[in-house]
Amino acid sequence: MTPGLINPRQILSQIGLWLSVLVIVSPAILFFLWMASLSLKFEVDNAAYPPVLIPENIAWKNYADVLASNRFLTYFTNSLVVTGAATLLAMIVGVPAGYGIARMAAHKSAIVILIARITPGLSYLIPLFLLFQWLGLLGTLVPQIIIHLVVTVPIVIWIMIGYFETTPLELEEAALIDGATRWQVFRHVALPIAKPGLAVAFILAVIFSWNNFVFGIVLAGRETRTLPVAVYNMISFDQLSWGPLAAAALIVTAPVLLLTVMAQRQIVAGLTAGAVKGG
Amino acid sequence: MSVVTQTSPAAAQDAAPEREWRPPSYWPFVIPALVVVLAVIIFPWLFTIWMSLNEWKVGSPTTFVGLANYLRLPNDPRFVEAVGHTLSYTVLSVVLPLILGTLSAVVFHQKFAARGFLRGVFIMPMMATPVAIALVWTMMFHPQLGVLNYLLSLVGIPPQLWVFNPNTVIPSLVLVETWQWTPLVMLIVLGGLAAIPTEPYESAQIDGATFWQMFRFITLPLIMPFLFIAGMIRMIDAVKSFDIIFAITQGGPGSASETINVYLYSVAFVYYDLGYGSAIAVVFFLLIVALAALMLYARKRMLWTEIASGA
Questions:
Q1: Within 10 A of A159 (CB to CB), how many other CB atoms are there?
Q2: pTM score
């Protein structure tokens, strides 16, 4: 790429490389562009043939309509509470567990996580649905928080096992010899070093919990829907036009997309380490 | 699963009990998680197995029926059909992302400007909320107003019915699944490519090998283990695929795209036949385990033929 050194072969291969990059990235880019376009068009433009990408009149109103409906705020809060609680609980429980498993080298315990990874989310729902019904919890957010642990806890444990296995033992052993308890060692030596791993586990748990749909359609009532369930109900029941629907879809997934692009390094590290996905 | 090298487990076990700070006092760290896992993973599993042995419908008394729920399965045409749909959906949703993901990984392995950012963009489909994506794909599949038929018309292909035609619904859903999950394959294979040393390529270049030859005889054999892991993960996810299918077609038109998972939902939470639903859940799980075992077996066979052919 030094100017002055013009090698036609190099230029050609550079062009070829950029063309291939363009080809493989365009399905993602075009899809989300089209999603944004749908969400910013009035009904007339969304029904136009041939389709319009950039309309003359931009329908900001679609977003205003979605945000103004008071239900949307309820569902947003529900999503926030369910994902927040399920992720926090998973971190509180899963980070020490990941540490313990890594230090005990109890690799057999990973089988449980593997089973959780293989099991279809629906199979947890049948027994837990009955349990929540007996306990009379179905009208609240508690069942969803608990069942989201099925997604978040294995992710956090799996990533933290991998992370603690790579952190150095020497410091911890020195601290133990100096008379620190195991908890103190964990709290003051292991945990500070593991901060990048904590970030990875947290981000992935948040994303997969936020995206979860299957638990909500069974457990959520009218007042306890999370955003994915609310969006699904918009498709099937309300006779809405495409604009507001696409706007709602984009609002639901926008936090995740932003997080993906901003924290792509952590996400890639976490996904390639465990290739975990919930549900 | 790639298990990171362990820190001498044998030494930990064989350590003499005299050294008082050595015995595993790490249990307190694990116990809270153990309680959660028992409550939300192990207990549901045991309870599901128990329910599958009972006639268990919401609102009526339960009776123990032994294996009757399981014996219903082979005679249930909807279930048999669902197994077929699941298998064809799975095969397509493993093969296509595997091919496209490998090609994308080869591209992303090169050095170019803004690679990190573009990689972030590339993985957006797999991170985005599936229901939100499904909603937009539904609009794009629309036979009259959808943008896909317009794109087809640009290259002279007649308009399709996509998810509204029983014959094209599964390929159409696979299109979404492929679009969504090719990035995961790409990431795993990219990890494999990063681990390949450069020497084989240098000597191949000296010998005058073409790009394709290098890919076929150096890259492909070396990334095989990663392709295998990617294929395994893809298989497990494709078999279980629910959100996209349910949100776009609910198993329709008719039952043309009803997979086991979608049928399981209907049985358990539309008809509230929880005993039968549990039996489906158990069989479904066993099917996934069997498919995974089959892949492991195929992998072993493949390794043997590779050794036999001297590759």
A1: 28
A2: 0.88
